[in-house]
Design brief:
heterodimer, A: 316 residues, alpha/beta, Rossmann fold, 14 helices, 12% strand, B: Annexin V, domain 1, TIM Barrel, 4-stranded parallel sheet, 46% helix, globular
Chain lengths: 316, 465
């Protein structure tokens, strides 16, 4: 069977960060499938070819000699199309692929932030690094009580200094500590490079935090502007996506419509670090210059996202 | 007025009717978030005893959301059919539960009763029912609607084919439509959630879907799930709108959060009817709902999330919809924490909708931050099919790559048909047969890539857009 390029390309959904991971992890499942079904690079995806020929199928052409008719279509979508069937159900390979993607997303939701490693990664910034906890004591509480994730735990507020700088960065785990671990430090460093001459408060690492936790922290720090870098709700295709929320004059009770958002920062077809930092830095400079964030700021530039994404990050 | 019940010497008090209903609800995170949940497990059961004792007609005398402040309350009370209510008017909520499960409550009796019930009555009695009761009674209810296909007939399970794409790529959407059709899905509607919610984009998607439907003469309807005002604008510009979609909730304030009112829904239904596109029937509206919507809009008026959800069905039924579904696990764990809560909510929503005469379906689904997985969905889809659910939503491989959550797969629908013997809508089943996609036993053939059936459909998807 020819290793048809179209099949190979189509076998992995294009443009998703998960694609490479899936391909890597496919090894064992591939072998299972190969043992029980037809050989070839398109196992599972061309389940039709492995099946008993349907009545009416041309009998003169062995099924496994045909090109994968889904290959062209797969280039147009990363949806799980053309999976084939085992009776009425999905072939095992695709069941396991799906379970793996879900497992990765679940791991990302429940993983704890490694604060020491994150602080070390932030060292080149040359800024003090502080820690803060939300009022949600643990992950289970965090998931049930979004209101607690938006407030500091008792006593945490007093532990933060009134730094009185222009800009504060808050890094919060949100719904994907993995995304924060991977992207927050490089994005923050790239932002600082693009914001020369702006006074920056100590960086606060917040655990069990939601976007609005940055309001209370920014207010306490006395910053004119707060940038919250936070893990977005993991999807099956991308479990490590970072969001950035920019809020002028942070204080408890700010509404989502008073923020600007740069979302989908990840290396699986999302925003690269440098591009994200460019957008965040633009927002920060404009917010400080004009004294506002939110709907009044977003109209100026099509590239800047709006806070509809908040629903995704907050999991509403 | 307040309510109380004494259990083992302990007096449990409930401040008012809303508090009593909330406390009687099975545990769920949304009511805990709202501060409405029972104070203890024993208090929950005390509330159920007190609720069982409550005359059903109390819900006609005492509005949970003030009549003056809320057009949904006005709709519910102003359109209440006292004659239809008469057969159960003498019952308590507990007595009503027993009657619903009795042999007297057959399909005809339940259909006649529906206009006499308010959503609050349906929600109240559901709180006294176990999951098996919700299934058994819903199974007796029949709500049949039609546009080009007929939905809700006994022994049938229809599907919404949901071919979403992260950037609305027409070829990507067409590929997912093809995938679903080849698995025999799409008889309730081929309905896409657009990534970009604009009128020109909506028209482009509608024209693409309508051309596909027309080319293969598929007896189904298409829908772009955009805001009702966008659908009105699309109809003004002559776009081929089969169904008008809208998300709705159970209070005027929550609907305002969605940017809709009863007046705009009325206008939209009239506009869609004037197009005369249905061949089998004239149901032109499609609504989605879901527990937690009102609370997340801070518009729940202190009413528990299941009761306020049931009020959304009063909004739906006023517009004779073809399809209504609860998007049960989409909202997240702060409203429905885990598989147990999602399963319960799905059965409650289906039961309440059917009891009120709404053509109820379900998006059996979950997000990655909920304590749920595919096994929970297997249980809910099976239970809902046994309960006679009108339709379920399905996406390629159970993975919605645009909305970032997991629904059912087209395969899941085949499994339900095989294990429970349910069939597609009759018009669609005939089409599948005409397309030579069914085998001699009526099962969906697994088509080889070079089969003529597949070859007929593939070029369309490859050329779309």
């Amino acid at each position: 069977m020819p290793a048809e390029p179209g099949v190979a390309a189509g076998d992995v959904p294009p443009g998703t960060g998960e694609a490479a991971g899936r391909a890597r992890e496919d090894g064992p499942a591939d072998r299972d499938a190969a043992a029980s079904r037809a050989p070839g690079p398109a196992i599972g995806r061309t389940r039709g070819a492995d099946a008993d020929p349907a009545p009416g199928a041309p009998p003169d052409m062995p099924p496994d000699m045909s090109p994968d008719p889904w290959a062209r279509l797969r280039r147009a979508t990363n949806a799980r199309i053309g999976l084939g069937r085992s009776g009425d159900t999905m072939p095992l390979r695709h069941v396991l692929e799906f379970q793996l993607a879900h497992a990765r997303a679940r791991d990302a939701v429940h993983a704890a932030l490694d604060l020491d490693a994150l602080a070390a990664a932030l060292a080149p910034a040359g800024l003090p690094v502080l820690r803060a906890r939300s009022a949600a004591a643990d992950r289970a509480t965090y998931l049930r009580r979004p209101d607690l994730g938006r407030r500091l735990a008792p006593g945490e507020r007093d532990a933060l200094p009134a730094a009185g700088q222009e800009l504060a960065f808050v890094i919060a785990d949100g719904l994907s500590a993995a995304a924060v671990q991977r992207h927050a430090a490089p994005v923050l460093l790239a932002c600082l490079e693009r914001l020369p001459g702006i006074g920056v408060a100590p960086v606060v690492l917040a655990t069990q935090g939601r976007v609005a936790l940055g309001d209370e922290i920014g207010e306490r720090l006395g910053a004119r502007l707060v940038v919250v870098l936070i893990g977005e709700r993991p999807g099956l295709s991308v479990a490590e996506s970072l969001g950035a929320y920019v809020t002028f004059a942070p204080r408890a009770g700010r509404r989502d419509s008073e923020r600007n958002c740069v979302s989908n920062i990840h290396d699986g077809g999302g925003l690269p670090h440098a591009v994200a930092a460019e957008r965040i830095a633009w927002l920060a400079r404009e917010a400080l210059r004009r004294g506002l964030t939110g709907v009044g700021l977003k109209d100026d530039r099509a590239l800047v996202g709006d806070t509809d994404q908040a629903a995704r990050i907050e999991g509403r | 007025m307040g309510y109380a019940w004494t259990l083992g010497g302990e007096r449990h008090r409930f401040d008012d009717l809303r508090a009593l209903l909330a406390a009687a609800s099975p545990r769920r995170s949304g009511d805990e978030l709202a501060g409405l949940a029972a104070a203890s497990e024993a208090a929950r059961i005390a509330a159920r005893y007190a609720l069982a004792d409550l005359p059903l007609r109390r819900f006609l005398d005492e509005a949970l959301v003030p009549y003056e402040a809320d057009e949904v309350t006005r709709l519910i009370l102003d359109t209440h059919d006292a004659a239809a209510f008469a057969p159960v008017a003498h019952l308590t909520v507990g007595g009503f539960r027993d009657w619903l499960l009795s042999y007297d409550a057959d399909a005809a009796a339940l259909a006649a009763l529906a206009p006499g019930l308010t959503p609050e009555m349906a929600a109240a009695v559901s709180k006294l029912m176990r999951n098996q009761d919700l299934i058994a009674v819903a199974r007796k209810c029949r709500v049949v609607t039609a546009f080009r296909s007929t939905i809700g007939l006994p022994g049938r399970l229809a599907t919404r084919l949901q071919p979403n794409h992260p950037s609305d790529d027409p070829r990507g959407i067409a590929a997912a439509v093809l995938d679903g059709l080849l698995c025999g899905s799409g008889d309730a509607v081929i309905g896409v959630n657009p990534a970009t919610d604009s009128v020109p984009n909506g028209i482009a998607l509608l024209e693409m879907l309508d051309a596909l439907r027309a080319q293969y003469d598929i007896p189904t309807q298409t829908c772009v799930l955009t805001h009702v005002t966008n659908s009105l604008a699309m109809m003004e510009r002559g776009a081929p709108v089969d169904l008008v979609f809208q998300s709705v909730a159970g209070t005027e304030a929550a609907n305002a959060g969605f940017g809709v009112s009863l007046a705009v829904l009325r206008e939209a239904e009239a506009a869609a009817l004037s197009l005369g596109r249905g061949t089998a029937g004239r149901n032109v509206m499609y609504f989605e709902t879901g527990q937690g919507a009102a609370l997340s809009a801070e518009a729940h008026h202190g009413v528990d999330q299941q009761t306020v959800e049931a009020r959304a069905y009063a909004v739906c039924r006023a517009f004779r919809p073809l399809l209504v579904n609860t998007v049960v696990g989409f909202i997240g764990p702060e409203y429905l924490y885990d598989g147990k809560q999602i399963i319960r909510a799905g059965l409650e929503d289906h039961f309440c909708g059917k009891l009120l005469g709404v053509p109820m379906g379900c998006d059996v689904c979950y997000t990655n931050h909920a304590e749920a997985d595919g096994d929970d969905m297997d249980v809910l889809m099976t239970a809902l099919t046994v309960a006679g659910c009108n339709f379920l939503i399905a996406v390629p491989g159970a993975d919605d790559v645009m909305l970032g959550y997991q629904s059912l797969s087209f395969h899941d629908i085949l499994t339900l048909r095989a294990t429970l013997g349910v069939r597609p809508a009759p018009e669609f089943e005939s089409w599948l047969a005409r397309m030579e996609m069914l085998d001699a036993r009526g099962r969906l053939r697994e088509l080889a890539p070079q089969s003529p059936q597949l070859a007929r459909l593939l070029p369309y998807a490859a050329d779309a857009g």
